[in-house]
Amino acid sequence: MNGDYLKMVQFVIPVVFIIGTGVVANQMTFIQNKHLGFNKEQVVVIPMGDPNIRVTYSTYKERIRGHPGVLGATAVNEVPGGLVDDIPFLPEGNDANETVRINNMSVDHDFIRTLGIEMKMGRDFSTAFPTDTLQAFVLNEAAVSWLGWEEAPLDKEISIGNFKQGRVIGVVKDFHVRSLYSEIEPMMMQLVPKPDSLHFIAVRIAPENISGTIEFLRSSWQEVYPQDTFAFSFLDDDFNSQYETEERRGDIFRSFSLLAVFIACLGLLGLASFTAEQRTKEIGVRKVLGATVGSIMVMLSKEFTKLALLASVIAWPVGYQAIKAALTNPVTALQYE
């Protein structure tokens, strides 16, 4: 009885690991293919650590925009995947002392277009409207719903202390600024009169001749800022770095799964050899009586098949939570973790 129990265990363990590997692989596939509400591919992120660079970043921006490999350029206080500030503001309809806090992104005129964020209604920031700098806000769908402005969000008044009073000029479709572990939260975007708070330049480049375009960005940087080192990263790498834990988990599950299957195969081979040796005489008698090779193989494999089926029956309930996670919406599974 103990021998049969050990035999089952050697089949149960690989099945459990294979189920876990499948769940992790399913989540990673979802993460990699999920549309985030913006296009994170082919976007080069250049940090502006020196405040002096921020003040004159428009010089560099204009310098690179004429290159055929540069499809768009913008500046922002924080790119998606990083930390996002929240600020107090007063929405229309609230009393003067009833300020609320909302996630805020300080951007320049080209942010929405460069990152490929979709407008749902209204318009984007535009240099054709000089008042946009101090009197315009763009909200996401989550913010419109949170404020109860679904019926008519455009032209709603927003105040940020005595610093800025303006109106909603547009609404963008929801996009992820944090990992998929977090739900999309209310977001407000605004232009800033001074670029001090713009910490990153984001440049969308063409997929052709990426290395050549990067080299152009580097040489242009050295021309505009000869005293400062050029550094860059890719937005998709920065955003995906939030899931390093999941990637390591997947590697661990795959390694243990391969090891468990290998050990199970060795055990199966040993069990088959032992069974065949134990039943050598029986096999000889059956062959004398006319048994075919196929029938003998079926006879010998019945025991292994029963053990494998029984092990599977035991393993599936053990991996029930994993299977449940694999069959549910991956966003729910990620948030649950």
Strand content: 15-25%
Order of helices and strands: HEHHEEEHEHEHEEEEHEHHHHHH
**Mean pLDDT figure:** 82
The major sheet is characterized as: 6 strands, mixed, barrel
Spatial arrangement of strands, main beta sheet: 3-4-9-6-8-7
Number of H/I helices: 13
User: So what's the overall shape?
Assistant: elongated
Specify the structural class.
Answer: alpha+beta
**Poorly predicted runs of 5 or more residues:** none
**What is the domain total for the residues?**
2
| Cα gyration radius (Å) | 30 Å
Overall helicity: 40-55%
Distance between the termini: 39 Å
Number of strands: 11
How would you describe this protein?
This protein has 337 residues and is an alpha+beta fold. The chain folds into 2 domains: 2-34 and 243-336, no CATH class; 43-231, no CATH class. 50% of the residues lie in helices and 18% in strands. It is built from 13 helices and 11 strands. Strands 3-4-9-6-8-7 form a 6-stranded mixed barrel. Strands 2-10-1-11 form a 4-stranded antiparallel beta sheet. Strand 7 and strand 8 (164-172) form a beta hairpin. The two termini are 39 Å apart.
Notable characteristics:
337 residues; single chain; 6-stranded mixed β-barrel; 13 helices; 11 strands; 4-stranded antiparallel β-sheet
